[in-house]
Design a protein that fits this description.
Elements lengths: L4 H22 L2 E13 L32 E8 L11 E6 L7 E8 L4 E2 H11 L9 E9 L3 E4 L2 E4 L5 E11 L1 H5 L5
């Protein structure tokens, strides 16, 4: 067995340790809040901004403007973790993954937050009436609402029209986090 590998492995390990230390101190990755949502038509003002934002807007039995009505802008209503409320602001980008179209992403803009935090017990019956899995709800949730950038989605090379009542998973970036802050919580 030759000894040539000892100096080479030393320098390799040293460079790898320096790179890992640099990434831990300087690198970052996005942290997202996700929640269950529904695409709705109507309930927007002339600019397309959501007029109301409450858990009642998730109720599909409420009448809405028809999707064929050109003045009925498509919007979304989603429930995200209530602890993220201070980090959510109007104008943030929200990405929706519509159920049944796993490779498609619908981009939206956050317009409003709900007026109050809701408990999981308040939200669970509404989500179960939609057929959504409510088991992963956090203890408190807040409704978020906004307008969709497009009324269509592309999945598998085909284009589809979004309609009122489609279920989706909403994802909004709330902050960037450094690996070092995970290792040393006091640096947050």
């Amino acid at each position: 067995m030759s000894r040539w590998w000892l100096p080479a492995s030393f320098w390799f390990l040293l460079i790898a340790a320096v790179a890992a230390g640099w990434f831990a101190a300087m690198g970052s990755w996005p942290v997202y809040e996700t929640g269950i949502g529904v695409i709705r038509s109507g309930a927007a003002d002339i600019r397309g901004t959501a007029v109301s934002c409450s858990i009642q807007d998730l109720n599909l039995s409420q009448p809405r403007a028809r999707a064929s009505d050109p003045s009925a802008a498509l919007m979304f209503i989603a429930l995200v973790d209530g602890n993220s409320t201070p980090r959510l602001t109007s104008g943030m980008r929200v990405v929706l993954s519509v159920s049944g179209y796993p490779d498609a992403a619908v981009v939206a803009t956050l317009d409003r937050l709900g007026d109050r935090l809701l408990t999981a017990a308040d939200a669970r019956p509404v989500l179960e009436s939609l057929g959504a899995d409510a088991s992963a709800l956090t203890p408190t949730v807040v409704p978020i609402c906004g307008r969709l950038d497009s009324a269509r989605l592309v999945s598998g090379g085909e284009e589809y029209q979004l309609t009122d009542g489609m279920l989706a998973r909403a994802r909004v970036m709330v902050r960037n986090e450094r690996p070092l802050s995970r290792l040393l919580p006091r640096t947050r």
